[in-house]
Design a protein that fits this description.
This protein has helices at 2-21, 25-31, 41-65, 71-84, 89-99, 106-115, 123-137, 142-150. It is built from eight helices and no strands. The two termini are 29 Å apart.
């Protein structure tokens, strides 16, 4: 629960900072005439990447202080935040991709396996998901291979 609250606060701070920096969105907020989500898609895409970076660092920090299985509740918190803030699946997939940049960070790979969306994706989202799955499948770690082979939806 603390992780969910911490990530939620991080997300609010990121969005607040991006809104302050984004000159195109500010007039929309002031007038409140436009409530269409398309105005906020680029902002949310950027926020998801920033939040993804924070999540990688937070998971690494949590792993140094706690058990190696901490990635499981952390994955649940990550999913909760991305659902509660209504991020597009593509934003979530791009945030997950950040975890795979660290080849020697096995818990990051396990985290991605736990949080990958399973269904309801558009064509371009499925393409990115396939890239992530291929990255997971070809990782040389025996631990990752064992986990990968135990997931029925890969």
């Amino acid at each position: 629960m603390i992780t969910t609250q911490k990530l939620s606060l991080d997300c609010v701070k990121i969005i607040d900072n991006l809104l302050k920096e984004n000159k195109e969105v500010s007039p929309v907020l002031e007038s409140l005439k436009h409530r269409h989500i398309d105005y906020f898609r680029p902002l949310y895409a950027q926020a998801a990447l920033e939040l993804g970076k924070i999540c990688v660092n937070n998971l690494k920090e949590d792993l140094s202080n706690k058990l190696s299985s901490i990635y499981i509740p952390f994955a649940e918190a990550f999913n909760d935040i991305f659902d509660q803030f209504n991020f597009d699946p593509m934003n979530k997939l791009n945030a997950l991709k950040l975890f795979l940049e660290f080849k020697d960070f096995v818990p990051g790979y396990l985290f991605v396996m736990k949080t990958l969306p399973r269904y309801g994706l558009k064509k371009e989202e499925e393409a990115l998901k396939s890239e992530l799955i291929e990255e997971l499948r070809t990782h040389p770690s025996e631990e990752i291979k064992k986990h990968f082979n135990s997931y029925p939806y890969f």
